[in-house]
Design a protein that fits this description.
There is one protein chain. The protein is an alpha/beta fold. The chain contains 15 helices and 20 strands. The strands form four sheets. Strands 7, 8, 9, 10, 11, 14, 15, 16 and 18 form a nine-stranded mixed sheet that branches. A six-stranded mixed sheet has the order 1-6-5-2-4-3, sandwiched between helices. Helix 3 runs parallel beside helix 4 and helix 12 crosses helix 15. Bound molecules: ligand BES, manganese (II) ion (MN) and zinc ion (ZN). The site of zinc ion has 5 residues, from strand 10.
């Protein structure tokens, strides 16, 4: 992807973006071409409504030129998300080289074009003989502010989408840690991997218990980037890294287990955010932690009824071994607060089916005990078309977590399951500003207005932007 200011080669397609009712098309067209276009527009009743396409094919200097004029509707109704939707729909089924141009420069952000092309060009085809073709897009004289930043965000997002799409026979706690070490070298952040012995030494028994039935034992992946040594502020990111979730002894039905290789998406998201933060050399300090483990089944599995001492010191009664994410996260949150001394935490997790029931698959549910954090996060995510919605943290849900036999149990009553899970996590933040993003619904896409089917990569960009502006 690049911006050009001269027509120096032929493209498979020339795409012109127009606003409804506008006539002049773009700088590189001759007067006679413009006249031709006007006549064809009239003949086809083309006005440039949202998503409307006028396709023209003509011969110029013995070459076949294919030109599409794509409408975006009325100028005053065009928003960033409408722009995403229209351009995504148009480009999704295209191949080859495309030159994009427009005369309504103030409405078209090259960053968004770049983001959408990046979304479309990602493919998971390592295990297919036939690879998918990529779009080769150039922009003609379109105003750009920071194309390089957008390209780095695409790169970071693609890395994590690939980690999510890779199956659990390839990505386990150990290989996830190894890949993160490689990414740290490539993008410029420090990675420390704590193994299962160290995890037990630190008293992270919740994390250890969730993962102990797997042949590949838990790892705590710690990433550090210090871009501002003069500041004491350290942003803390935590991501659920369940490389597979069978449900444990409370095993999931087969249908529900199918996508559970995606249960490390939160972890991948914070790894991706670190890649973007480090490569763009933000002047910020950020530490990210991924508790990586597999919720598997063997004779050593943790059980409903077990009482386990957390790193925090509180004893936790296990109710359902499928509510494993909050256990792994609880110890990771204690670790990042106490051992890394972060000033604020955002955790990201495919935590509850209840979140999907509540909000569906287009919007992430966000819980926060700080209003100003939520509003900045909302602003940061929406810049990249990432939809979030604030959820409540009612005190009654904390009451529900009282246990008859231990300090706490890890699950409440049936209703409001996403909230009781959040409430459980909040305890371990010990008063540090804390925000939790439940991406169970948004991590993976089947259909959406501007995301391709598969791992969405959602919130890599939003978290990057949040850290940048914090
Ligand atoms: N990883 C799942 C949550 C999930 C479900 C993510 C569907 C994506 C799609 C989580 O570990 C889980 O199993 N949660 C249980 C909790 C329940 C046992 C309290 C759930 O939501 O059913
Ligand atoms: Mn589970
Ligand atoms: Zn899970």
């Amino acid at each position: 992807m690049k911006v050009v200011d001269k027509l120096e080669k032929f493209y498979d397609r020339n795409l012109i973006l127009v606003v409804e009712g506008e006539t002049n098309y773009c700088e590189y067209m001759s007067e006679s071409e413009k006249e031709l276009v006007e006549r064809l527009k009239e003949r086809n009743n083309f006005t440039g409504k949202k998503g409307e396409v006028l396709s023209l094919n003509f011969i110029q200097n013995d070459r076949l030129i294919s030109m599409d004029i794509l409408g975006f509707g009325k100028k005053e109704e065009i928003s960033d998300n409408l722009f995403r939707e229209v351009i995504f729909k148009y480009l999704s089924d295209k191949k080859g080289s495309i030159l994009i141009s427009t005369n309504t420069k103030e409405l078209v952000k090259v960053e968004i074009l770049c983001e959408i092309v990046g979304n479309i060009n990602y493919s998971f085809d390592e295990f297919k003989e036939k690879k998918s073709e990529k779009l080769d897009v150039e922009f003609f004289n379109i105003e750009l502010t920071n194309l390089e930043e957008s390209l780095i965000l695409n790169e970071a997002t693609d890395v994590i989408r690939n980690l999510v799409d890779l199956p659990a026979n390839i990505i386990n706690p150990i290989t996830l840690a190894e890949r993160t070490v490689e990414l740290g070298k490539e993008f410029g952040f420090e990675v420390e991997v704590l193994d299962d012995n160290k995890i037990q030494e630190l008293g992270m028994n919740l994390l250890y218990s969730v993962g102990k039935a797997s042949v590949t034992k838990p790892r705590l992946i710690v990433m550090r980037y210090f871009g501002d040594r003069d500041s004491k502020d350290i942003m803390g990111l935590v991501g659920k890294g369940l490389t597979y979730d069978t449900g444990g002894l409370c095993i999931k039905p087969a249908d529900s287990m199918m996508n559970m290789k995606d249960d490390m998406t939160g972890g991948a998201t914070v790894i991706g955010a670190m890649c973007a933060i480090a490569k763009n050399r933000l002047k910020k300090n950020v530490v990210a932690v991924v508790p990586a483990c597999e919720n598997a089944i063997n004779g050593n599995s943790y059980r409903p009824g077990d009482i386990i001492k957390s790193m925090n010191g509180k004893y936790v009664e296990i109710i359902n071994t499928d509510a494993e994410g909050r256990l792994a996260l609880a110890d990771a949150i204690t670790y990042i607060v106490r051992n890394e001394k972060v000033s604020e935490i955002i955790d990201v997790a495919t935590l509850t089916g209840a979140m999907m029931v509540a909000l569906g698959t287009f919007t992430t549910g966000v819980f926060s005990n700080r209003d100003e954090v939520y509003s900045l996060l909302e602003k940061s995510c929406s810049k990249y078309g990432e939809r979030i919605w604030r959820m409540p943290l009612d005190e009654e849900f904390a009451e529900d977590l009282k246990s008859d036999v231990a300090d706490l149990k890890h699950m409440g009553a049936r209703w409001g399951g996403a909230i009781s899970a959040a409430k459980f996590l909040e305890i371990f933040a010990e008063g540090t500003p804390w925000t939790h993003m439940d991406i169970a619904g948004t991590a993976y896409n089947n259909s959406s207005k501007w995301y391709k089917k598969g791992a969405s990569g959602v919130h890599v960009r939003g978290l990057y932007e949040y850290c940048k502006n914090r």
